[in-house]
Amino acid sequence: MLRPQSTATRDLVSLDGVWKFALVRDSLETEAPWTAALPGSLEAPVPASYNDIFLDPAIHNHVGWVCYQRRVVVPRGWTRDERYFLRIEAATHKGRVYINDTFVTEHVGGYTPFDAEVTQLVRPGEAFRLTIAVNNELTNTTIPPGIIRVEAGGQKRQQYFHDFYNYAGLARSVWLYSLPTKHVADVTVVTDVQGATGILRYDVQTSELGAGETVHVTVRDEADAVVGEAAGARGAVHIDKATLWKPGAAYLYQLCAEVRSAAGAMLDTYSVATGIRTVEVRGTQFLINGQPFFFTGFGKHEDTAIRGKGHDPAYMVHDFQLMDWINANSFRTSHYPYAEEVMDFADRHGIVVIDETPAVGLNLAVNSGFFEGVGKDSCTWSPEFINDDTRAAHAASIRELVARDKNHACVVLWSIANEPSTNEPGAREYFAPLVALARELDPSRPVAYINVMFANYDDDLVADLFDVVCLNRYYGWYVHTGDLATAEAKFEAELRGWDRKYGKPIIMTEYGADTLAGLRSFYNAPWSEDFQVSYYNMCHRVHDRVPAVVGEQVWNFADFQTAASHVFRVDGNKKGIFTRDRKPKTIAAVLRARWSQKLLDQGYAGTK
Ligand code: GCB
């Protein structure tokens, strides 16, 4: 799915700003709030989650629909032989779009974009009323899943199985854009390297073309010089002495796809930033451009005060500055696809990304204790909980993630789920078709799932289906709490077990300890900054003794908000290396020194 772009043939109008806002207290259908100006005087920023904007607990805790509304004027210069669309980059978790009194489209899935075609409903130079209804409900057939309880007073209460706050609303940008009738509909670029030659294999999908109308592809380097051209909707461009996209040394070519008329006139043009690089798993190595790669960095979240999951370019740039400072070369988009600006930034700055679907919390074993009996006696993979409908939603989330992010050089690994219950019967039947789907959609990248500590190498039922072993482990924190000597021995024994059984690269995708910034302890008490340092030193001794470990992404980049029902969290999860407002804890300097060496070992220039 191509992100809207302003080009010689396409216009793009940002609809970000402050919109009218209202809760839907009863039923969206009966209230039909899109048919008139929204009631009340509330206004909400777009992009932002709405939950922490207002002081009213009824909004903060609302379960159900809300509406955003604004007036939009279609640029008067737009012509009638174009098509017009709205692009909603994220409506968490379900969105419905209305133009004046007319329903246009619905989309399910809170972290991937969708379009609403409005060509027949609006006119150049005229205004229309745009209403976007957004629903935050999670059920056993959504990704991520949840359970809604209705209390005695009729009040809905949302429970969910993941450890981050269920922020909702329009957390990313909304656009109005125009598209020529004859247009580039999709572009897929897969790169390869042969000797000094970079190869861009491309596939351009178009709207239906007439006789003599053709597709033409031009590749430009960073100096804007044309370095390759090709005719036809499918083909390959070879670039001699190509500059590769490398971790820490990004280089992007622009592949420009054009639709041309029979007379050679440009009917549409669209550019895709393309980094030439290869990714391969060989034995216990993870290779980028044929070189062994060691991941340093983070599991992150899109989470900041007030905005919730709202995309904010200031935080984005600052977070990348912090990653640069600490010598992180990678992160995982735990636990959902991030804003496309983040992926573009990672492409431009050579940061490697493990790209994850929103499939988190498919595990009753982890969560049954927290939720008043939910799941105590049930199986995760069952008609009552994660069933065929959930899997269909999960498949859709994989399709949408790959469709959106397939051309990003930064993405080197797909993660199709975080901590599913992979030692329960039914896990293999559930996952085998999803892995096959991911491979079919993108044969060029390895596929992983992120393993939870309850599913060990001797009872996990799915690890052989995947290319890499990604482990979340909390030895010394959730188990053997504070006892780092026992933790060290058990952790090492487990890693060696995975290595023995699977012989695949192991990436530590989570390990960490909650740490209250400023809390110090002579006795290495859990929650202190001192303990966090000792804990990480312990883990790193183990990583360094197990050669199959090819990556360490600590949990988490920054402290982040969680559900109030999680009574073991005080104002959120505190496993951040940075606080929620991005101040370093003591551990930050320790990681920085360690990862400096890791990067030097991989031939990075100029580590901090
Ligand atoms: C995990 C989850 C992550 C949690 C983390 C924790 O294993 O993947 O979402 O936040 O543990 O801190 O408990």
From TrEMBL:
**Which InterPro entries does this UniProt record tie to the protein?**
Beta-gal/glucu_dom_sf, Galactose-bd-like_sf, GH, Glyco_hydro_2, Glyco_hydro_2_AS, Glyco_hydro_2_cat, Glyco_hydro_2_CS, Glyco_hydro_2_N
Glycoside hydrolase family 2 catalytic domain mapped to chain residues: 279-596
Specify one Pfam family: Glyco_hydro_2_C
In what residue span(s) does the Glycoside hydrolase family 2 immunoglobulin-like beta-sandwich domain sit?
183-277
Record key words, sorted: Glycosidase, Hydrolase
Q: What's the superkingdom here?
A: Eukaryota
Q: EC class of this enzyme?
A: hydrolase
Task: Give yes or no: UniProt keyword Hydrolase.
Answer: yes
List its EC numbers.
3.2.1.31
Record domain Glycosyl hydrolases family 2 sugar binding: where: 13-180
Its family?
A: Belongs to the glycosyl hydrolase 2 family.
Q: What protein name is recorded for this chain? A: Beta-glucuronidase
